[in-house]
Amino acid sequence: MPMTEVGAAALALVSAGAWWTWSWRRRVASHFETSDASRRPLDADGVVRGAAALHLVADTDRAVLVLHGFNDTPQSMAHFARRLHAAGYTVMVPRLPGHGRALRDMAREAHAAAWFAHVRACHAELRARHARVYLCGQSMGGALAVLQAVACPDRPALALLAPFLGMPDALQWQARLSAFSPAPYFRSTGGERSIHDPDARRQALGPGIVTSRMLRGLRQVALHAERALPRVAVPTLYLQSRHDNRIEFARAERCFAALGVTDKSAQWLEGSGHIISADYERDLVADAVIAWFARHP
């Protein structure tokens, strides 16, 4: 066969493969997006119903920036936020970019740079209005809170709820390899074990679906925050369940030990999964954080 015919055949084969991949990707994306839309309907603003940001205003000079976790929504922090508000704090729980949205919006908006920028903007907004601004984060929100505390070491106190600091090797490889997959979405497994309380688990609004960009963003946030732990100078409360399905207890102990601040305290829970703000021990968690903040007025 002449070389020109070989080249034409190869080009046709490549073109057919590219068309098949594009067509397959569209079918898979449509399946995931349709299924998610039926399970998590949107409000008029394009946000999953019940997943909007929370801003509870109190008539004091004290405020708390509360950050939810990866692939979750402010709904997971709602009970915790109400408890803080009842204790006299203005509470802001922003919806991290891409979270609590349709999957197509999630794929476009959910990435590390957007999360960093949004946290900085929300923190600046609270600082402009309140003399004392505390930081609190759960899971990836805990990692973001660590980085914000390092950037602003004059904060009165920091509370970390099962912070996702560092990343297991297997998940790091999954994040790296996902960049080479043509799949638009991936299922996030294990979420059903993150909340032990069945009623609270039914109320959760996370999609259980992630993108390659999100996984790589999680890796970036978690690794940066882990490296920043020795530079934390803000008094820190660290809350973690011994039965966390996402974070090994030994890793949590190492991360707590790595915190550079001397004014720190750890409390290890026994009856919860990973999302401790919404699980069986949610009031114990709220009590502990309120008491910690009261110790650092």
Give a quick precis of the structure.
The protein has 297 residues and is an alpha/beta fold.
Give an overview in words.
The protein is of the alpha/beta class. The protein has a single domain (40-295), classed as 3-Layer(aba) Sandwich (Rossmann fold), CATH 3.40.50. It is built from 10 helices and 9 strands. Strand 4, helix 5 (140-151) and strand 5 (158-161) form a beta-alpha-beta unit. Helix 2 packs across helix 10 and helix 6 (169-178) crosses helix 8. The relative contact order is 0.14. The mean pLDDT is 93.
What is the CATH domain class? Alpha Beta
Biggest sheet, spatial arrangement of strands: 1-3-2-4-5-8-9
CATH superfamily: Alpha/Beta hydrolase fold, catalytic domain
Going by CATH, the architecture would be: 3-Layer(aba) Sandwich
Please bin the fraction of helical residues.
40-55%
Cα gyration radius (Å) = 21 Å
**Main sheet makeup:** 7 strands, mixed
Number of DSSP helical runs: 10
Number of strands: 9
Task: Supply the number of structural domains.
Answer: 1
List the helices and strands in order: HEEHEHHEHEHEHEHEHEH
Helix/strand/pairing category: alpha/beta
Average pLDDT across residues? 93
Strand content bin = 5-15%
CATH topology: Rossmann fold
Poorly predicted runs of 5 or more residues: none
What is the chains' assembly state? single chain
Please name the defining characteristics of this protein.
297 residues; alpha/beta; Rossmann fold; 7-stranded mixed β-sheet; 10 helices; globular
